[in-house]
Amino acid sequence: MDFFTTFKICGSGLAAQRAKMGVITSNLANVSTTRTPEGGPYRRRSVVFSTEPVSEGFNTKLKDALRMVKVKGIVEDKEGVKMVFDPANPDAGKDGYVAMPNINIVAEMADMVMVGRAYEACATAFDATKNMALKTLEMGK
Q1: pTM of the predicted model, to two decimals?
Q2: How confident is the model at residue 85 (pLDDT cuts 50, 70, 90)?
């Protein structure tokens, strides 16, 4: 396996975690948004990952052993709203309840920490691969 394959795998992980961080920050920013252009409250979104084989530069017997991360899509939560009693809110219904996004701030923050750690792990693997490549070049002197 060459160094470029490892760089591709690490890069795909970095891009995937960046996309997930963007969705988490959007969820946190819209935690109290009751009115969207689509109508109704903001719905929590989450990222769906999939794998993609690394097709080049690897032995044919083990070509499926290495996979890159790919963002398959961003989906809205099916349990998108919770009803909160707030008769003073302009979006409240006749009964005084407002449809609010069903976003758990603690869970979103925990996801944010996990994404940060995964991003850091990808960056560390990228840096380790870079250092191995540099040491290999030094041996050739």
Answers
A1: 0.81
A2: very high
